[in-house]
Amino acid sequence: LQVLCRYQHIWNIDLRFRPAFLGGIMQATELFLKGNKPPAMLPKRAEYMLKDIKRMAKYYQVPVKISEDDFQRVLGKSSLGAMRFITAIDMTQPQYLEPLSREFWIRFWSQQEDISQPENILSVAGQAGISSEVAQKLLGIISSPAVKSRLKETTEEAIKYGAFGMPAVVAHFNGEPHLFFGSDRLELLGSVIGEKWLGPVPS
């Protein structure tokens, strides 16, 4: 998220955020991948990830903080309400999609706060510059059929492109979609679209 935003005006790309529900992706791909599970559920992988996330945070210059206890927090808290709120923003106030996504990310991954509660969703919206009146109105429609349908649609679209987890980036280049999974594939993304990788913090 952060690095793609840094590159959106450097590379020749039209960056579009497509809110999708990770839980739906994991559930839908579990049958096909013979038990698709989050990496943190594998003890040795979780141990490695703790070290690797610290290295990645320093390299990409993003304020992600995570401990062994946070894995259970991540797996135990639903992001469905937040993703529906982001979807409602996408449908009505798309100019806030990028700052809202970033604020949810910071709240969850840097400040270890619960983003499932309505009061926290409203607080995040305020940090993203959304007025209290608009935020309250959007919070009131997150369970509407239209918002639910839109989130389901974008989640199914991600699965159609081959997503099995997040982050997932789909690059449409020369009439063909290319799926990239993980935050460490941006250099490959640049190579495919003919753009130069200038490091995680391009000037």
Automatic annotation (TrEMBL):
Keywords in alphabetical order, please: Transferase
User: Which InterPro entries does the annotation name?
Assistant: DSBA-like_thioredoxin_dom, GST_Kappa/NadH, HCCAis_GSTk, Thioredoxin-like_sf
Q: Name one GO cellular component term.
A: mitochondrion
A biological process (GO) of this protein is: glutathione metabolic process
**Catalytic class of the enzyme:** transferase
* Annotated catalysed reactions: RX + glutathione = an S-substituted glutathione + a halide anion + H(+)
Q: Which GO terms describe its molecular function?
A: glutathione peroxidase activity; glutathione transferase activity
In short, the EC number is 2.5.1.18
Every DSBA-like thioredoxin domain range: 2-192
* PANTHER family attached to this UniProt entry: GLUTATHIONE S-TRANSFERASE KAPPA, GLUTATHIONE S-TRANSFERASE KAPPA 1
Report the sequence similarity comment from the record. Answer: Belongs to the GST superfamily. Kappa family.
Question: What's the protein here called?
Answer: Glutathione S-transferase kappa 1
Organism name: Podiceps cristatus (Great crested grebe)
User: What taxonomic lineage is listed for the species of origin?
Assistant: Eukaryota, Metazoa, Chordata, Craniata, Vertebrata
